[in-house]
Amino acid sequence: MPRTGRIKSESGIYHIILRGINRQTIFEEDEDAIKFVETLGEYKEKSGYKLYAYCLMGNHIHLLLKEEDEELGIIMRRIGASYVYWYNLKYNRCGHLFQDRYKSEPVEGENYLLAVLRYIHQNPLKAGLVKDIGDYKWSSYCEFINKGEIIDVDFILGLFGKERTKAIDNFKSFNEIFSNEGCLDIEERKKLADNEAIEIIKKVCNVPHCIDLQTIEKETKSKYLRLLKKEGLSTRQIARLTGISRVIVLKA
After folding, report:
1. Looking at the domain assignment, is residue 41 inside a domain?
2. What mean pLDDT, rounded, does the chain reach?
């Protein structure tokens, strides 16, 4: 079936989701998240876009972005290619890291812009990663409070008031209101408990014990590791349960 064309945003603003191929983890360590944020900043200068929000989750990324000098497709190719090159070099792997086609939706109007912004910032809260939005390190929320470097905070805060201190207070209050807007999202599989993952490993790899996967010949082992990822097991979970190096699991 041919792909449907993307809907063009009249405002130039888009909510974008970029996710790991086969739901693969994109950020194994803090260094990886730091590098991706740096990449956003680097290509913000080169491509001339405005960035209103971001949130880096384990296996996907949310961006709220306005295209200006370059169109969205070029921007996303630049960001993706740069980060994947660095990531593959670090983990001694090759091939794709991101799903081949990012998801996007046009954001029209002030009300929906703010709804998407809040939705992005509340992602870690809804995923149970933190109890307070401000505690999550890898979203743009704190940039609005502390005047960060890569977010265009003035435009957004201007929607909350003319006086900066009051605007920040209004911004905080707005983001604390629980929302259930029907924004662009991804279908996430429920995280597998270790007992479920163990049974999947035994069944998929045809082994009596998870650690037996270590003794299987290299090519077959790589095939099994790829299948386990498709079954929803995370890189860390596979490495922990089988005793196989996380680097080898990543390269598979």
Report:
1. yes
2. 88
